[in-house]
C-alpha cells in the first residue's frame, strides 16, 4: 500500500507538471519601441508580471486552460485577449496610444520636449520608487546631473535641500502640475512641509539653466516640474512600511478606485514619518495626505487634488562648530525641549484639460494654498529692548535682560490661476502655445512672547512685531516650435512678467518696513533643434531670465534708502543627445552670465543685520555628460559628470572689527573668486545588477568636489570634497494573493565616510596679545551627514 501511494503521488506530480505552461512575450508600442514596466495580468487568477527593460515578460507554471490576458501601460490603450494554454505560450503585444485625452497635457505648457532646445532630465515613478523609503525629494534626486543634496538632521528626513549647478533652492523654480510651489517671498521650497510627497509623484522633469517659460519664481539655475499621480485603470490598494537607523519610521497606505464606468477615478494616500535624526535631538514628526478625484472623458478631464502636510521638527539649524567635528559630530546647541518648527500647509488644485478641436487643446487650473505655523525659541538672557519692552523692576533690581521664550509666526494665503492654449497645425509643423498666470500671496508675519523669566508689562500673545506683505505676480507667454526643414526645428519663447510687492508694519528688529515696489520683466528665449536621425539630435539656445529680490533684501535694506536691484541672467545651452537600443548618452555645454547677482558680503544695516548686495558680474561655465548603457541583460551602468567654472569678477567683503575702542567694518576687495557653494566637479555613477529575475542589486556612488562657504575663495572657509557609496537591494515578486510584493534594503554611506555638504561662515577682528594689534577669527559651522545607516521597506500592492 505504501509503494502504491508513493507511485500515485509521483503520478499526480507528473500530471500537474505536464499540465503547466510558461507564458512569455514582449510588449511594444505601435511604432515598435519596447515598453518597460507594462503590467501583464491573467484576469481572475492573481497571476501577473511586469515587462523588463527590453519589454519582455514571463508568467511561469500556469495551469493549462483558457484565460483572459490584459496588458496595460500609461498613455496607451489596454490590450485584452482570450488565450489558451499551452497553445499560446509566446505573445508579441503591440499597444496603441490612448485615444482618451491623457493627463500629460496638464504639464505640457511648462515642459520641454525632444524638440525643445534646452537641457533636461526626466525622473519616472519607477526611478523614485526604488529609493523612496521616507526621505525627502532632494535626497531622492541626489544622483541626477549637477545636483548636490543635504539634510540639516543628517539623515534625509526633516529639513532638506538641494543645489543644481550651484544654485540653491531659492533660485530653482518648482511647479506641481504647472502650479507654482516656491514661497512667494523667500523663493524657497520647504520640502519638510510636504512629507512623503514623492509617494504621490508620477514623474519629474528637471530643466537645467533658464529652461522654458513657466509660472511662479524665476528660473535662475534650474526648474523642477512635478506631475502628481495620474489615473490608474484598475482598482488598487497599497501598504508601504519602512524603518531604519535613528529610529526612522514610515507608514503609508494608498488606495484607488481605478476607472469607474470608464470616466471616474479617485485616489487617496495617508502617510506618517518620524525620525530621531542623526544630529542630537533633530527629531521629526511628519504627517501628510493626498486626495485626488477626476472625470476622464474622451476630450475633457477635470481633476481635483487636495494635499496637506504637517511637520513638527526640532531645530538643527545652528550647525556644528568646526572645532567639534572631530569629537562630537552630532552636536546640537539647543536643549530646550520645545525648540521646534511647527507648521502646516494645505494645497487645493482644480485642473481642467481638454481637446477643443483637432488643432486646439486647453489647460487651466485654479489653486489655493493655506500655510500657518511658528518656530519656538528659548532665548537666554535676551535684551528686552529687542522686543520693544521697558526694563522690569524686581525688588531693588532693574532688569534689562532675562530669559525669554518666543514664537515667530507665519500665516499666509497663496491663490490664483494658470492657463495655456495649444495650437498644432494639420501638417504638424507648427506647435504654438499661449499661456500665463495670475497669483497673489497675502502673508502675515508676527511674533509673540509666550514666557518671561519675570513678569513684565506685556500679556501673553501680545505681538512684539507684526507686519503684512502682499505680492501679486502676473505673467503671460507665447512659445512655439516650427519645423523649418526635415528634422530642423526653430524655437521661440517670449514671456512678460510683472510683480507688485508691498509691505506694511513693524519688522522683528522693531523697524517700520512699509513700502512697495513694482517690477516688469521681459524674458525672451530662442533656439533650434536638429534631429540628425531617429534618436540623435543637436540643440542650441539663448535665454534671458530676470529675478526680483527676496523678502529679506527689502526688509533688511529699507526700500526708501537702498533698494536692491533685480538680478539678470543670460544663458546659452548647446547639447547633443543620442537614444539607442540599450544605451543613451548626452553632452551639453552651458554658459550662465549674471548681472547684479545678490550675495552676502558681511555688510550691516542700521540695526546690525547682515544684508545682501549686488555684484556686477559673475558667471558659470560648464559641461555636463550623462549616459546609461546596458552591458548585458544582467548589468546596466549609468552615470553623469559635471565640470564647471563659477566666478565672481569682483567682490567686496565687510569684516567686523572689534579690535579698537569703537566698532567698525573693514572692506577687502577680491577679484576672480569662486562663487560660494559651487563645486567644480559633481559626478554620480550607478551600477545595477540583476542576478536572477525579480532581484536587483545597485551600487550608487556620488562625488562632490570642494566648495567654498563664501565668495572669498579662502581655503580656511571651505567644504571638503567627498565621495559616498550606497547599496540598494530590491526583491519584487507577484504571489497569487497580492498584485505585487516588494522588499527594499538601502544601506547609505557603506564606507562610513565623514562628510559635510553644507555650512556657513563668518569672520571678524579681535584684539591680539600685542599692544594695538589685532587678529582675524574665522568661525565655520557645518551640517554633518550620517555615517553608515540603513532603511528597509516592505511594499504590498493589492
TrEMBL record:
Question: Sorted alphabetically, which SUPFAM superfamilies does this protein's record hold?
Answer: Carboxypeptidase regulatory domain-like (SSF49464), Porins (SSF56935)
Domain TonB-dependent receptor plug positions: 115-221
Its placement in the membrane is given as: Multi-pass membrane protein
Q: Gene3D superfamilies, per this entry?
A: Carboxypeptidase-like, regulatory domain (2.60.40.1120), TonB-dependent receptor, beta-barrel domain (2.40.170.20), TonB-dependent receptor, plug domain (2.170.130.10)
> In which broad location class does this protein mainly occur, judging by the first location in its UniProt entry?
membrane
Q: Which UniProt keywords apply?
A: Cell outer membrane, Ion transport, Iron, Iron transport, Membrane, Receptor, Signal, TonB box, Transmembrane, Transmembrane beta strand, Transport
What subcellular compartments does it reside in? Cell outer membrane
Top-level taxon = Bacteria
Region forming the signal peptide: none
Query: Which residues are in the TonB-dependent receptor-like beta-barrel domain?
Result: 328-750
Question: Which InterPro entries would you find in this protein's record?
Answer: Beta-barrel_TonB (IPR000531), Beta-barrel_TonB_sf (IPR036942), CarboxyPept-like_regulatory (IPR008969), Plug_dom (IPR012910), Plug_dom_sf (IPR037066), TonB-dep_rcpt-like (IPR039426)
The family line of this record is: Belongs to the TonB-dependent receptor family.
Q: Give the protein's recorded name.
A: TonB-dependent receptor
Species name for this entry? Shivajiella indica
Amino acid at each position: 500500500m505504501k509503494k502504491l501511494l508513493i507511485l500515485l503521488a509521483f503520478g499526480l506530480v507528473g500530471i500537474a507538471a505536464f499540465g503547466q505552461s510558461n507564458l512569455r512575450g514582449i510588449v511594444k508600442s505601435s511604432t515598435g519601441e519596447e515598453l518597460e514596466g507594462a503590467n501583464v495580468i491573467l484576469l481572475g487568477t492573481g497571476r501577473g508580471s511586469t515587462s523588463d527593460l527590453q519589454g519582455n515578460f514571463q508568467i511561469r507554471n500556469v495551469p493549462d486552460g483558457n484565460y483572459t490576458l490584459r496588458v496595460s501601460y500609461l498613455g496607451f490603450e489596454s490590450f485584452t485577449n482570450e488565450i489558451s494554454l499551452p497553445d499560446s505560450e509566446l505573445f508579441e503585444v503591440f499597444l496603441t496610444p490612448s485615444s482618451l485625452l491623457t493627463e500629460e497635457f496638464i504639464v505640457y505648457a511648462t515642459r520641454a520636449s525632444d524638440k525643445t532646445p534646452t537641457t533636461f532630465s526626466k525622473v519616472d515613478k519607477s526611478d523614485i520608487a526604488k529609493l523612496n523609503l521616507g526621505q525627502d525629494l532632494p535626497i531622492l534626486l541626489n544622483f541626477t546631473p549637477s545636483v548636490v543634496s543635504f539634510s540639516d538632521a543628517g539623515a534625509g528626513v526633516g529639513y532638506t535641500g538641494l543645489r543644481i549647478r550651484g544654485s540653491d533652492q531659492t533660485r530653482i523654480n518648482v511647479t506641481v502640475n504647472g502650479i507654482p510651489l516656491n514661497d512667494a517671498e523667500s523663493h524657497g521650497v520647504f520640502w519638510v512641509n510636504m512629507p512623503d510627497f514623492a509617494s504621490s509623484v508620477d514623474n519629474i522633469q528637471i530643466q537645467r539653466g533658464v529652461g522654458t517659460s513657466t509660472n511662479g519664481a524665476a528660473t535662475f539655475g534650474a526648474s523642477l516640474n512635478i506631475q502628481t499621480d495620474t489615473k490608474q485603470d484598475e482598482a488598487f490598494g497599497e501598504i508601504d512600511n519602512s524603518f531604519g537607523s535613528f529610529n526612522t519610521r514610515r507608514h503609508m497606505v494608498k488606495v484607488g478606485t481605478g476607472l469607474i464606468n470608464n470616466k471616474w477615478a479617485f485616489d487617496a494616500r495617508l502617510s506618517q514619518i518620524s525620525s530621531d535624526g542623526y544630529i542630537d535631538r533633530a527629531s521629526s514628526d511628519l504627517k501628510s495626505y493626498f486626495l485626488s478625484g477626476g472625470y476622464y472623458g474622451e476630450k475633457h478631464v477635470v481633476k481635483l487634488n487636495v494635499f496637506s502636510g504637517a511637520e513638527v521638527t526640532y531645530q538643527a539649524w545652528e550647525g556644528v562648530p568646526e572645532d567639534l567635528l572631530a569629537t562630537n559630530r552630532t552636536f546640537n546647541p539647543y536643549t530646550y525641549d520645545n525648540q521646534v518648527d511647527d507648521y502646516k500647509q494645505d494645497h487645493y488644485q482644480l485642473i481642467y484639460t481638454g481637446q477643443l478641436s483637432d488643432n486646439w487643446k486647453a489647460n487651466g487650473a485654479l489653486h489655493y494654498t493655506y500655510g500657518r505655523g511658528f518656530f519656538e525659541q528659548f532665548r537666554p538672557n535676551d535684551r528686552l529692548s529687542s522686543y520693544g519692552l521697558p526694563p522690569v523692576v524686581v525688588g531693588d533690581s532693574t532688569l534689562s535682560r532675562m530669559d525669554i521664550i518666543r514664537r515667530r509666526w507665519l500665516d499666509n494665503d497663496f491663490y490664483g490661476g494658470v492657463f495655456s492654449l495649444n495650437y498644432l497645425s494639420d501638417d504638424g509643423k507648427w506647435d504654438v502655445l499661449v499661456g500665463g498666470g495670475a497669483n497673489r500671496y497675502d502673508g502675515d508675519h508676527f511674533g509673540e512672547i509666550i514666557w518671561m523669566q519675570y513678569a513684565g508689562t506685556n500679556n501673553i500673545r501680545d505681538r512684539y512685531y507684526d507686519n503684512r506683505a502682499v505680492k501679486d505676480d502676473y505673467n503671460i507667454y507665447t512659445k512655439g516650435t516650427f519645423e523649418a526643414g526635415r528634422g530642423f526645428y526653430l524655437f521661440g519663447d517670449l514671456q512678460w512678467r510683472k510683480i507688485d510687492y508691498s509691505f506694511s508694519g513693524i519688522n522683528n528688529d522693531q523697524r517700520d518696513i512699509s513700502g512697495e515696489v513694482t517690477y516688469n520683466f521681459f524674458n525672451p528665449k530662442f533656439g533650434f533643434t536638429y534631429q540628425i536621425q531617429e534618436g540623435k539630435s543637436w540643440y542650441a539656445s539663448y535665454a534671458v531670465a530676470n529675478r526680483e529680490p527676496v523678502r529679506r533684501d527689502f526688509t533688511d535694506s529699507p526700500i526708501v534708502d537702498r533698494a536692491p536691484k533685480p538680478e539678470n541672467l543670460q544663458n546659452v545651452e548647446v547639447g547633443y543627445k543620442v537614444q539607442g537600443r540599450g544605451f543613451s548618452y548626452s553632452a551639453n555645454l552651458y554658459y550662465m552670465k549674471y548681472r547684479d547677482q545678490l550675495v552676502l558680503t558681511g555688510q550691516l544695516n542700521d540695526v546690525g543685520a547682515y544684508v545682501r548686495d549686488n555684484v556686477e558680474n559673475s558667471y558659470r561655465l560648464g559641461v555636463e555628460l550623462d549616459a546609461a548603457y546596458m552591458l548585458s541583460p544582467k548589468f546596466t551602468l549609468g552615470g553623469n559628470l559635471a565640470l564647471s567654472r563659477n566666478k565672481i569678477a569682483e567682490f567686496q567683503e565687510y569684516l567686523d572689527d572689534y579690535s579698537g575702542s569703537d566698532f567698525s567694518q573693514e572692506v577687502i576687495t577680491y577679484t576672480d573668486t569662486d562663487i560660494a557653494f559651487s563645486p567644480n566637479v559633481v559626478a554620480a555613477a550607478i551600477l545595477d545588477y540583476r542576478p536572477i529575475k525579480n532581484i536587483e542589486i545597485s551600487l550608487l556612488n556620488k562625488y562632490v568636489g570642494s566648495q567654498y562657504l563664501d565668495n572669498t575663495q579662502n581655503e580656511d572657509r571651505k567644504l571638503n570634497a567627498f565621495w559616498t557609496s550606497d547599496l540598494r537591494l530590491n526583491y519584487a515578486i507577484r504571489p497569487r494573493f497580492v498584485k505585487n510584493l516588494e522588499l527594499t534594503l538601502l544601506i547609505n554611506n557603506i564606507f562610513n565616510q565623514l562628510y559635510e555638504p553644507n555650512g556657513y561662515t563668518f569672520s571678524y577682528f579681535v584684539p591680539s596679545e600685542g599692544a594695538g594689534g589685532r587678529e582675524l577669527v574665522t568661525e565655520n559651522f557645518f551640517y554633518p551627514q550620517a555615517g553608515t545607516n540603513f532603511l528597509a521597506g516592505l511594499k504590498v500592492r493589492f
